[in-house]
Design a protein that fits this description.
With 292 residues, the chain is an alpha/beta fold. The protein contains ten helices and nine strands. Helix 5 links the parallel strand 5 and strand 6.
Length: 292
């Protein structure tokens, strides 16, 4: 018998069946007809296209309507990505998944959501979850400057394996910068820890690392924070920051994000265009060279 492998394109709406006819080009009368039924066939979900960067005028920083917060920024206008997500970030409480290339201003986009929390829900806290202690320390240093949240009277503390503030410091803090493992351990006893119940916004940086070793910890954190939200009758907002994703809709469904809060910009959307050059060179022994 002869085994033949080939691909047949399928599109919706599905036909009831395909008739596949195979004819030999060498032997007369050698042909086979097979009826392939599509009854019960379920096609995989087609992922929505990437978020298109709209041609909109850059939004001025004065759109924050907060002169104190406006002084924290040395620029006068938000970039196109920040402008496009500004309304959802600053005027609604929708959960957000922002997928964009590195260096596109995702941290400023998260700060827009932080400003909304401080403006509309005084007394609520922000939890910023970084995948590494080094990134958490970097964010702590940045937000503890006079030109940042410290300048508007907001206190930032670090909760990692290297720094463990006491309960009083966590209760006084407005922003808690932490790692997934540390916040997982702290939030387990949320009923007996008042500062956990004061959280109104959770920012998860580099959430695309969900598929790596720390993925289960992030899953537990998101599930627990959503459970706490249901028990306290206060909507804890979740903002995920990521690079461009192939399955943004799946991640958005898991985060409880509806249509308006999903932004997945393609890798080509960059403030500074990236040009790729491939340089080749002639030479022998290609494989040993590539093994070095």
């Amino acid at each position: 018998p002869q085994h033949i492998n080939f691909t047949i394109p399928i599109s919706e709406p599905l036909p009831p069946q395909y008739i596949v006819r195979v004819i030999s080009d060498r032997w007369l009368g050698s042909e086979t007809t097979v009826a392939v039924s599509f009854k019960g066939l379920v096609l995989p979900t087609q992922y929505p296209p990437d978020t298109k960067l709209l041609r909109v005028d850059p939004l001025p920083v004065s759109a924050l309507f907060n002169p104190t917060a406006e002084k924290l920024y040395s620029f006068q206008h938000f970039n196109p990505i920040q402008t496009q997500m500004f309304h959802i970030g600053y005027h609604t409480d929708h959960n957000i998944l922002l997928g964009a290339p590195t260096g596109s201003g995702k941290t400023i986009a998260a700060e827009i959501c932080i400003h909304r929390l401080f403006r509309k829900y005084p007394g609520k806290k922000v939890v910023y979850i970084a995948p590494l202690k080094a990134l958490a320390r970097e964010r702590l240093v940045a937000w503890s400057r006079e030109k940042s949240f410290k300048g508007i009277g907001r206190t930032t503390v670090e909760l990692t394996g290297d720094a463990t503030p006491d309960a009083k410091a966590l209760k006084r803090a407005d922003i808690v910068v932490t790692t997934p493992e540390k916040w997982d351990g702290v939030s387990r006893s949320w009923k007996s820890r008042g500062y956990v119940k004061q959280v109104g916004l959770v920012v998860i940086d580099e959430i695309h690392m969900l598929g790596q070793d720390r993925g289960p910890v992030l899953e537990v954190i998101v599930s627990r924070m959503r459970y706490i939200s249901s028990q306290t009758s206060f909507n804890i907002r979740i903002v995920g920051l990521s690079t461009a994703l192939a399955n943004a809709s799946d991640l958005g469904d898991w985060l409880g994000i509806d249509g308006p809060g999903l932004f997945n910009f393609p890798p080509k959307v960059r403030p500074i265009p990236l040009t790729v050059h491939i340089s080749g060179y002639p030479g022998k022994h290609y494989c040993p060279r590539m093994a070095l």
